[in-house]
Design a protein that fits this description.
This protein has 455 residues and is α/β, with parallel strands linked by helices. The chain folds into two domains: 256 residues, Aspartate Aminotransferase, domain 2, CATH 3.40.640; 88 residues, no CATH class. It is built from 14 helices and 19 strands. The longest helix has 25 residues. The N and C termini lie far apart (55 Å). Keywords: Aminotransferase, Pyridoxal phosphate, Transferase. This is Diaminobutyrate--2-oxoglutarate transaminase. Its cofactor is pyridoxal 5'-phosphate.
Length: 455
């Protein structure tokens, strides 16, 4: 079957290349292949499966919706499923936003939601410029690509996103975040005449495709202050971070930031396609039909999504993700001292990234910065994990980061199994890397490169 798919599918296919698995049954964290082999799935449909595969609550909601006899698809007409979903969604949002919220069902994907959000703030402000950040991933259509890092349109200004391991200013920490904030202020305040005025700023509280990069809470508050003072709407992309993934129901809650617009997808539809934009009422300047779409009334996704939102909220799964994520990070971070090819371990909640690096990278003239990313080693870790019955994702610069996105329902026992298999896979890859890459004339101390005194 994978061979047949390889012949028939477009060259654009991705996961099928690195994960030659043919799922026939799944429940929770576990997938069973056509050959009877079982895998622990820490890909979770790229984070869409907040409750894992085929959770009883989700299946019951879908069956109930189907058995009701109500139409499955009715555009944006009012339905009980739509009303129940909207009510549950507003219950989970930051109260300041929920009190003034308008909800827009804009299509079946995060890309649709990002495009709708950008279109909304442009209509509301009358401006065209957008502020985005390096490493961002905000959808895959040409319209959405005006904002992320790959954009070529001059209307999108790309700003430095703060991070510790590969800080754009070579500093990291609070100082690096402060410089990133000042850079943003200078772009806005020192613009030349004729420079497009920003219609909005869009950011991810944790960059997923960028390599699992949690934004510092203080920096997020600075972005909120910078945009509020200048009357620039702040769009927060919670497509990957929402529904409890980072240890709060919405990742902005870590910092206390209340955005003007939130982009929601991935887990919001309870495993089914659903894209939603939530925004302040004063931004609602659209005329009827200004932004439409044939598939914005997915009633099954609304039913599954409402059930998922309620289950996460009622069972404290966000809080569990916070505690379990801290435990996972504590157990994985020592790998940076143990293996020279493990550069960094980072994340928030159950959104974990392990950056693989080239262990023989030469030192710099003044100091040793992070070694170059090693996508080949990350791919090798993914392959070794698969051999051990564990499915993981890749992301980051040149796909050099191994990513874990387990469902929020993962048990302690399953967590131990995931960590054991992952560590064993990294151990195997590290041993091979050590043989392939002889030590550089910089000493290796505790598994990390250390500067040679006087050289």
């Amino acid at each position: 079957m994978p061979r047949s798919q390889a012949v028939r599918d477009s060259a654009a296919r991705t996961y099928a290349r690195s994960l030659p698995v043919v799922p026939v049954r799944a429940r929770g964290l576990t997938i069973e292949d056509a050959d009877g082999r079982r895998y622990l799935d820490c890909l979770s449909g790229a984070g869409t499966l907040a409750l894992g595969h085929n959770h009883p609550v989700v299946l019951e909601a879908i069956r109930k919706a189907l058995d009701s006899g109500a139409p499955v698809h009715v555009l944006d007409l009012a339905t009980p499923a739509r009303d129940a979903f909207t009510t549950e969604l507003l219950r989970t949002l930051p109260p300041e936003l929920a009190a003034r919220a308008r909800v827009r069902f804009c299509g079946p994907s995060g890309t649709d939601a990002v495009e709708a959000a950008c279109k909304l703030v442009r209509a509301a402000t009358g401006h065209t410029g957008m502020l985005a950040f390096t490493g961002a991933h905000a959808g895959l259509t040409m319209g959405a690509l005006e904002a992320p890092a790959g954009a070529r349109d001059i209307r999108a200004a790309r700003l430095p996103y703060p991070q510790d391991y590969r800080c754009p200013f070579g500093i990291g920490g609070e100082r690096g975040a402060e410089l990133a904030a000042r850079w943003t202020e200078s772009v806005l305040d020192d613009a030349e005449p004729g420079t497009p005025v920003p219609a909005g700023m869009i950011l991810e509280p944790v960059q997923g495709e960028g390599g699992v990069l949690p934004a510092p809470d203080g920096w997020l508050r600075r972005m909120r202050s910078i945009t509020a003072v200048r009357s620039i709407p702040l769009i927060v992309d919670e497509a990957r971070t929402g529904v409890g993934r980072t240890g709060r129901f919405w990742a902005v809650e870590h910092s206390g930031v209340v955005p003007d617009v939130m982009v929601l997808s991935q887990a919001i539809g309870g495993s089914l396609p659903l894209g939603v934009v939530v925004h302040r009422d004063d931004l609602d300047v659209w005329r009827p039909g200004t932004h439409a779409g044939a598939f914005r009334g997915n009633r099954l996704a609304m039913a599954a999504g409402a059930a998922t939102l309620a289950h996460v909220r009622e069972n404290g799964l966000a809080e569990r993700a916070d505690a379990l994520g801290a435990r996972i990070l504590a157990q994985l971070r020592p790998l940076t001292e143990r293996f020279a090819c493990v550069g960094d371990v980072r994340g928030r909640g159950l959104m974990i990234g392990i950056e693989m690096v080239t262990p023989d990278a030469p030192p710099g003239s003044d100091d040793i910065g992070p070694p170059p990313p090693a996508p080949s080693l990350a791919t090798a870790v993914q392959r070794e994990c698969l051999r051990r019955g564990l499915i993981v994702d890749l992301g980051g610069s040149h796909a050099g980061v191994v990513r874990l996105l387990p469902p929020l329902t993962i048990t302690d026992e399953q967590t131990n199994a995931v960590l054991d298999r992952l560590t064993d896979a990294i151990d195997s890859v590290a041993a091979t890397a050590a043989a392939r890459f002889p030590a550089h004339p910089a000493r290796v101390r505790g598994g990390r490169l250390a500067r040679v005194p006087g050289g």
